[in-house]
Each structure stands twice: as structure tokens, then as C-alpha cells.
Design a protein that fits this description.
Largest sheet: 8 strands, parallel
Bound molecules: 6-hydroxymethylpterin-diphosphate
Helix content: 40-55%
Distance between the termini: 21 Å
Shape: globular
Number of helices: 9
Order of helices and strands: EHEHEHEHEHEHEHHEH
Strand content: 5-15%
Radius of gyration: 17 Å
Number of strands: 8
């Protein structure tokens, strides 16, 4: 157990096309090795994904996604760090749960596959329900909200209700504002600044800012140079009440969060 309150979810992308690390961990051995490295660096959870959700991405078939993630989930289950499977497909989630995953992280919040909620209920796994406007293919085409925080909050409240009515235990649900998923720079910044308002929903908050494009829009950095912006935004999310930070650079964010928490709790 780490001394930190906030938990770090280390990202393991088993894809050829993820926006920041696509192709690096496509071979199962490399992905497993990377996951173990993130665990040693302080990850409290490992989030394994086989389909990129970057803006403009086309989906992959369940067969392809499953072939990518199943050996990696199997290889990392039992490493001492709980595994979450980043998928919207019930068939992929089912196989990942069989292979040892304990959490389903669904960027569509159960809108992508009508069987996923019932599966999560039946298997008793944790779920992360994320807000996204539209789909990865369309989400960055002129997103509009009256008030982005109110809109995200209302959506998440509705998805919690749906999950509970499908039989998912409320205490197993976490929520995520979906930074970068159908949001302009101004929307992302406002969500991060007013993150605390999501606490009214009574569920743990997951936030993923890691290496995302909004950072580059602020400081002009290329995707491989966004560590400073990742740390700044992660610490602000922490101060706003985030419980889980989904990051690629676990070691560096762990150092920052340890110091930030000491200050926040002094
Ligand atoms: N962001 C990404 C993917 N999954 N899940 C949650 N709950 N929250 C997020 O913010 C989130 C997520 C995108 O990051 P990454 O996995 O690195 O990229 P890609 O989708 O291109 O694989």
C-alpha cells in the first residue's frame, strides 16, 4: 500500500495507434513488462486497453481487441496490482474478467454495448463510467454545452442510475468527467477547475489528463513533452477532489502527488 490517498491508475495501451504510446506495447511481452514497471513505480491499478479512443479513431472488432488484451490481462493478473480493462464491449470485458480483471473502465458509460451493464452486475466488478459527447470519431467536432460542468454532472447522474437499475452495486461505481472527450480547451479547463462539484454525486472521481492535447494547446508542447502539464493538471484535479488519477508517467506523478497531499493535509 502506498502512503498516498489518491490512487494512480497506470495506463497500458496494447494498441498500434494510441495517441501518445501507440505501437510501443503491442507485443504482449512488452505490455506485460511495461505494466510491471508501472507497478514498481507505484501504480495502484493498471488500466489495460486494446482500442484507441483518440479523436478521430475508428473502432476495432471485439476479436482484434480481445486478441490484444487477453494475454496482457492474464500476464499482469496476480502481479499484486488490480487490473481494470478499458473497453466498451461486453465480449472483451467478459474475457478480461475471466483472465483476472476486477474493474471495467468504459468510456461510453454503458452506451456502447447494451450487454455490458448486466455483465458487470453479474460478475460483481467495479466500473468506471466516463462522460463523452458523441463518439471518438465525432467528439471533437464543435462540442457545445450550456454549462459543461452541469452537463457532465447530469449525464453521470443518469448513468449511475442506469447502472444501479441494471444491478451494479452503487459502491462499485466510479465516475470520470472524460477530459478531452468532446470538449474544447475551455471546457476541459472549466471541468478541472470546478471538479469538486462532481463530489455531489457521491462516488469516487477518476480523472485522466495524462499527455492530452489540451496541455499542448496551452503550452505548445508536443505529445512527448507534456509531463509538466500532466503533473500540474493531475495535482489540480487532486486538490479538486479526484480519487484516482489515470496516468502514463506513474513514477513522476507519484512523486508530485505525495508532496501535494502533504501540503493539502497540513
Ligand atoms: N482517456 C483515455 C482512454 N481511456 N478512460 C478513462 N476513464 N478516463 C480517461 O480520461 C481516458 C480513458 C485516452 O488516453 P489513452 O488511453 O492514453 O489514449 P488512446 O485512447 O489513444 O489509447
Amino acid at each position: 500500500m502506498s502512503a498516498r490517498r489518491a490512487r494512480l491508475m497506470g495506463v497500458v495501451n496494447v494498441t498500434p495507434d494510441s495517441f501518445s504510446d501507440g505501437g510501443l506495447y503491442l507485443e504482449p511481452e512488452r505490455a506485460i513488462e511495461h505494466g510491471l514497471e508501472l507497478a514498481r513505480a507505484g501504480a495502484d491499478l493498471l488500466d489495460i486497453g486494446g482500442e484507441s479512443t483518440r479523436p478521430g479513431a475508428e473502432g476495432v472488432s471485439a476479436e482484434e481487441e480481445l486478441a490484444r488484451v487477453e494475454p496482457v490481462v492474464g500476464g499482469l493478473a496476480g502481479s499484486g496490482v488490480p487490473i481494470s480493462i478499458d473497453t466498451s464491449k461486453a465480449a472483451v470485458a467478459a474475457a478480461a474478467i475471466d483472465a483476472g480483471a476486477e474493474i471495467v473502465n468504459d468510456v461510453t458509460a454503458f452506451r456502447g454495448d447494451e450487454d455490458l451493464a448486466a455483465l458487470c452486475a453479474e460478475r460483481g466488478v467495479g466500473v468506471v463510467l466516463m462522460h463523452m459527447l458523441g463518439t471518438p470519431r465525432t467528439m471533437q467536432v464543435d462540442p457545445v454545452y450550456d454549462d459543461v460542468v452541469d452537463g457532465v454532472k447530469a449525464f453521470l447522474a443518469e448513468r449511475i442510475e442506469l447502472a444501479v437499475s441494471a444491478g451494479v452495486a452503487e459502491e462499485r461505481i466510479s465516475i470520470d468527467p472524460g477530459i478531452g472527450f468532446g470538449k474544447t480547451l475551455a471546457h476541459n479547463l472549466e471541468l478541472l477547475r470546478r471538479l469538486g462539484e462532481l463530489r455531489d454525486l457521491g462516488r469516487p472521481i477518476v480523472v485522466g489528463t495524462s499527455r492530452k492535447a489540451f496541455i499542448g494547446k496551452i503550452d505548445g508542447s508536443a505529445v512527448e513533452d507534456r509531463l509538466g502539464g500532466t503533473i500540474a493538471s493531475s495535482v489540480i484535479a487532486l486538490a479538486g477532489g479526484a480519487d484516482v488519477l489515470r496516468v502514463h508517467d506513474v513514477a513522476e506523478v507519484a512523486e508530485a502527488v505525495t508532496v501535494a497531499e502533504a501540503i493539502l493535509s497540513a
